[in-house]
Amino acid sequence: MVRLSTLSQQADAEYAFRTALEIDPRLYQALCGLGVVSRERLDHDEAIACARRAIALRPAEAVSWNNLAIALVDLGRVDEAVRLYRISMSLKSRLFSITFGNYLLALNYSPGLSPAEVADEHRRWGCLCQEAAPQPAPHDNPPDPERVLRIGFVSADFRHHSVAYFLIPVLPALNRRRVRVTCYGLSPKADDFTRRIRDAADAWRDAGGWEDERFEAAVREDGIDILVDLGGHTGHNRLPLFARRPAPAPVTWLGYPATTGLTAMDWRLTDPVADPPGSEAFCTKKLYRLPRTFLCYSPVDAEEPVTPPSFEDTGVITFGSFNMLAKITPEVIALWAEILRAVPGSGLLLKAKGFSSSGVIRR
Q: How far separated are the first and last CA of the chain, in Å rounded?
């Protein structure tokens, strides 16, 4: 049953989980699996119910606490999720590293924590990760400033994802007389965005199933000079690989708003707005600030024509936020309220996966 879910055969997996629970409503693995599938099809209410039932059956199992926390983050209930992640981590299961990463991601959305506190937790994870990594081996990349520079990009989001929107315009703009690009894809999901990124790269590696040892060997064999992490502590990342320093210059960029916590990561590409002067105190690596912005957005070709703004007919301004509910904190709502009051008659349109929950809509 778990295998079906892993392979994204969600309808078959859901049927198997439900059938198993009809036979035995106390089957822990089926409850966990049904909760995961329910979240993926945006039924967060059922995902939460399944996780709570699983916790009641086996409170010492870390996975169900982690699953419940993930579902609560989707619904914007970040502080509850942080508490549950800490419980899951205290159980010291094989999921500890994954849960710790999920926990760090959630901390970015918690309004009750200072930047220093968030950075300290990232450093704590980084110390544990570095302690578990082998001593980095020397690199034999030729120190010739005239040779082609080899850059590797590592991501689970080479697909229809916000990271891809910002990466796609960059790859074709790199000077191929000076730079060679290798993309290491971590996700089995592929779509038209995947094809565009693959076509724009000089080499492509399906690296999602590789152990760290094999991954490091491939990076060294490819002669990568600069290895760029695009995910930080987001899903399916390979940050422990970077703790091994498989390339002379490990860099993080684009997909994560905070430090990774790794001292082995040399640089974070950012800009003066995302990381203003003084932000160095919250980062374990050097900040390289690009002069204007570290993001370069490129819209895809729209199938539908762009229509004129409704303001032209109604005279009413509509503001919008299409984002994660976890980012809509009380402080954000207060700021939005100021803006709406300053523009009489204006409205606010929100779009988020969490609105599949009736409870969230009521709240």
A: 35
> Is the CA virtual torsion 360, 91, 241, 206 positive or negative?
negative
Please answer whether residues 263 and 284 qualify as being in contact, where contact means their C-beta atoms are separated by less than 8 angstroms.
yes
Model pLDDT, residue 1: 45
CB 229 within 8 A of CB 101: no
Q: Which residues pair with 38 in a beta bridge?
A: none
Map tokens 């796609």 to a residue.
Answer: 168
Residue 5 has pLDDT above 60, yes or no: no
What span, in angstroms and rounded, lies between the C-alpha atoms of 107 and 173?
35
Q: pLDDT, tens digit, for every residue of 135-160?
A: 999 999 998 989 999 999 999 999 99
Query: How many Cβ atoms are within 10 Å of 198's Cβ, its own excluded?
Result: 15
Q: In whole angstroms, give the CA distance from residue 313 to residue 138.
A: 65
Can you state the angle between helices 96-107 and 62-74, rounded to 10 degrees? 20
User: Cα(223)–Cα(132) distance, rounded to whole angstroms?
Assistant: 25
Average pLDDT over residues 119-143: 95
pLDDT (tens digit per residue) in 68-119 = 999 999 999 999 999 999 999 999 888 898 999 999 999 999 988 999 999 9
Of 12, 213, 197, nearest to 205 by C-alpha is: 197
Nearby residues of 135 by Cβ (< 8 Å), 6 or more positions away: none
